[in-house]
Structures are given as structure tokens and as C-alpha cells.
Design a protein that fits this description.
By secondary structure, the chain is mainly α. It has helices at about 1-15, 25-35, 35-45, 55-70, 75-95, 100-110, 125-135, 140-155, 160-165.
């Protein structure tokens, strides 16, 4: 019984003292994930305990990394399964937190980069408009730079929309 108690205490204490990754670390890994499978795997690993209920933002990053991981898989079934799992999780996160700029940015970044045959492009226009409207309210300079840079490089913005981002 004493051994069981010690085991239970050890397992529960590791959960209590788990270190939450910093937003800078997560964002950096997310940007590298599209180019490096190791960064993608690391991001999925450090975010494995998060879901839409306990941290929708970190779960959103996990969802996107799961979809990106499909690029590094060979088996078509596994590729599609990863994509579908990530897509479903991201949509749950956004449904819980519809006004979160970072989550909407994540969906925009994924939807503008996935192949059209996957049929995951239904929110590009609404997310683009939301981001353009909301960008001035972003107080986190790192996030604002990441979003602005991505939008300026996006083929889904007009030249006049890109020029407004410079103001």
C-alpha cells in the first residue's frame, strides 16, 4: 500500500509541476515545423497534454503541428488521419474561443497552405478580415510581428490590404 501511495504521489506531482512552454518557444517551433520534421515532432511532444478544454491556444498549436506532421509521413492513410485529427482539434479550439486572434491566425496559416483537395479553406476570407480588423489591437509585439509578416507574404491579401499593414 505504501508503494502504491508513493507511486501515485510521484505521478500526480509530475503533473502538478509540469512546465508550461513559453509562447516564444511554441511560436518558434511552429515556424520551424513547416521546414523541419524534428521541430514538428518536438512541438507535438511538448504540447501533448493540452486540449481544447485545458488550454485552447496551446491545443491549437498542437492541432496545427499535427496537420503539418502529415507532410512528413509516407502512408496516405496516416497523412490524412493526422490532418483530420489536427483539423478537428483546431476547430474545437476556435469554437471555444472564437475571438482569439492567435487561433484565427493559426487557422488562416494552415488553410492558406494546405492542398485544395483537402477541402479545408472555408474560413480563409473570414479569418483574413478578422485578422486585418484585429491586428491593431495586438499588444504582444512578437505575435503582431509574426501575424503581420505572414499576412504581407500571403497571396490571399490584395496589395492595398498589404499596404494598410505598414501603417
Amino acid at each position: 500500500m505504501k508503494k502504491l501511495f508513493i507511486l501515485f504521489f510521484f505521478v500526480s506531482s509530475t503533473q502538478l509541476f509540469a512546465i508550461v512552454p513559453t509562447s516564444a518557444e511554441v511560436r518558434k517551433l511552429y515556424q520551424k515545423a513547416a521546414k523541419e520534421s524534428n521541430s514538428c515532432k518536438k512541438l507535438i511532444n511538448i504540447l501533448s497534454s493540452y486540449n481544447e478544454k485545458n488550454n485552447s491556444l496551446l491545443a491549437g498549436y498542437k492541432a496545427c503541428a499535427t496537420m503539418i506532421m502529415a507532410n512528413y509521413l509516407i502512408n496516405p492513410y496516416n497523412k490524412y488521419s493526422n490532418f483530420k485529427t489536427g483539423k478537428n482539434l483546431l476547430e474545437k479550439c476556435i469554437a471555444i474561443n472564437t475571438e482569439n486572434i492567435e487561433l484565427r491566425f493559426l487557422r488562416f496559416s494552415i488553410q492558406t497552405n494546405v492542398p485544395s483537395f483537402l477541402g479545408y479553406s472555408n474560413s480563409i476570407k473570414t479569418d483574413k478580415l478578422f485578422l486585418l480588423k484585429s491586428i491593431s489591437s495586438i499588444e504582444d509585439l512578437e505575435l503582431k510581428t509574426m501575424v503581420t509578416t505572414f499576412l504581407k507574404e500571403s497571396e490571399h491579401l490584395t496589395e492595398s490590404e498589404k499596404l494598410k499593414l505598414n501603417k
